Amino acid sequence: MGAFVGDFEPELKELRETFNSGKTREISWRKAQLQGILSILKDRENDICKALNQDLGKHHVEAYRDEIGTVTKSVNHALRNLKKWTSSKKAKMALASFPSNAKLVHEPLGVVLIISSWNFPFGLSFEPIIGAISAGNTIILKPSELAPTCSLVLAKTIRDYLDNTAIKVVEGGPYVGDRLLQHKFDKIFYTGGPRVGQIVMTAAAKNLTPVTLELGGKCPAVVDSISSSWDKKIAVKRIIWGKFGACGGQACIAIDYILTQKKFAPILVELLTKYIRKTFGDNPMQTNSIAKIINKKQFSRVKELLDEPSVKSSIVYGGSSNEENLFIEPTILLDPPLDAAIMTEEIFGPLLPIITLENIEDSINFIRARPKPLAIYGFTNNEKLQKKMICETSSGSITFNDAIIQYVADTLPFGGVGGSGFGRYHGKFSFEDFSHQKAVMFRGYLIDFGFRYPPWNNKKLQL
Ligand code: NAD
C-alpha cells in the first residue's frame, strides 16, 4: 500500500471481503502464503540484510541469524504443524449430557492489525504474520517508521510475494498508527513500548477488540558465583551475547542488569571485561559486531542514562561513545544508584549495570520489588536457587544458564506478564493467539430428563 493516502476504508473493505469469501480458511491458501514468506527470505536475503545494515548497522551474520534464520525456522515449523493445529479436537463430555459428543474448532478471528517495532523489523513483523496466516486471518501490518529501509523492504516484498487481497502493509509513524486504530479490527497485535501500548488498548476497548501487547521492561540476570572454570567461561560468553550481541542491547529480552554477590563481583567484572575485549577488540569503536543505536533521539536517551554524575562514577569498563556513528561502547557499571534512571528505566542499549547483594538469594526480593520482567535469567546450577527463582518471581519467561535463546523455541510461549505485556505467541501459541477456539456440541434426542424444564415444583428437587 506504501505511503499513507487516506483513511484506509477501501483497503479494509477489501480485507473484509477477502475474509468473508472464505479464501483464507483454505489450508492450501495458508500454505501458499507461508511458502511465500520462505521465498521472500530466500530470494531477498541481500535486500533484507542490506536494509538491516543501513537502519541498524547489523552485520550480515547477525541479520541472518536473528531475522532470516529465525523466521525461516518458524515458517517451517508452521508448515509442518498446520494440519495438526487446524484439525478439530474431540472434547470429553460429562455423563449428565449423554447422549452427546463435542469438539473444539479453531476459527480465524477476521481482519487483524499488527503493529511492529524497529529493533527486529522483519522478525517482529513476520512472526505474528505467520500466526495470523496459519489461523486463516486477513492482515494489515504497520512496521515501525524508525527502521525506514526495512519498512520499505517489508512493504515491497509482501506486495510482490503474498496475496495482497488478504495481506497489506501500511507504512508510517504514530499518525498512521493512530488513523488505523480508529477502525474496528478483530484483533490487534502490538509490539513496542508501554506508552503506545496504552493507546492501542484504549482504542481497542472502544470496539472490545482483543489485543496482544508485546512490551518490554528490565530483564535481570542473576549471576551466582559459578565455581567450575569451564561453566564460568561459557556463562560470561552468554552474558556478553545476551547484552550486546543482539541489536547492541536494543532487544526486549536483552539482559538489562546483573544481580550478583558482593564477593563475586570483582571476579565477574574481570571476566566480563576480558571477554568484551576478546569479542569486540581493544578498540570497540571499530567493531562491526555491535549494532548501532537506532537514531539520535535514542542515542541521547542512552547517553543521558550514563552521563548522570553518580552513574558515571560507577563505570568500571567502557563509557565512550561517538554520536556521528550512533555508537556507544559496551559499558559495565558497578553499583550505580538504584534510584538513578539507569536502574528504573529500561536501558535498551549497551550499558550493563551490576548490582551487588550480600547473598544471591536476596536477588529474589530485589526482582519482586520491581515490575514483572519479560524475561529473567539465572546463571546458576544451584537447584535450590533455580527452584526459588521459578516459584517466587513472576516474569514472561525464565531461562537458566543462557539468555535470549528462549525466543527461538517454537514449543515455548513468548510474551510478558504484568507490565511486560500479555498474550503469547510463537509456534502453536501464535496460531492460538490469532484464533478463536469454538465449542461445538452435538446432542441426541434419545434420553431427556424432565426435571430440567419448568414448571417448577418441589418434587423436582428430590430427583
Ligand atoms: P514504540 O511504542 O515507540 O513504537 C512501536 C510501534 O508503535 C511503531 O510501529 C510505532 O510507529 C507505533 N506507534 C507509535 N505511536 C503510535 C500511536 N500513537 N498509535 C499507533 N501506533 C503508534 O516502541 P519502540 O520504540 O518501537 O520499541 C521499543 C519498546 O518496545 C521497548 O520497550 C521494547 O522492550 C519493546 N519491544 C518489545 C518486544 C517484545 O517482543 N515484547 C520486541 C521489541 C521491542
UniProtKB/TrEMBL annotation:
Presence of keyword NAD: yes
GO MF terms held by the record: aldehyde dehydrogenase (NAD+) activity
Key words of the record: NAD, Oxidoreductase
UniProt keyword annotation of Transferase present: no
Any one GO CC term of the record: cytoplasm
Domain of life from the UniProt record: Eukaryota
Reaction it catalyzes: an aldehyde + NAD(+) + H2O = a carboxylate + NADH + 2 H(+)
InterPro entries named in the record: Ald_DH/histidinol_DH, Ald_DH_C, Ald_DH_N, Aldehyde_DH_dom, Aldehyde_DH_NAD(P)
Catalytic residues in the record: E214, C252
GO biological process terms held by the UniProt record: aldehyde metabolic process; response to abscisic acid
Annotated Aldehyde dehydrogenase domain residues: 16-440
A family per Pfam: Aldedh
Family per record: Belongs to the aldehyde dehydrogenase family.
Protein name: Aldehyde dehydrogenase
Organism: Artemisia annua (Sweet wormwood)
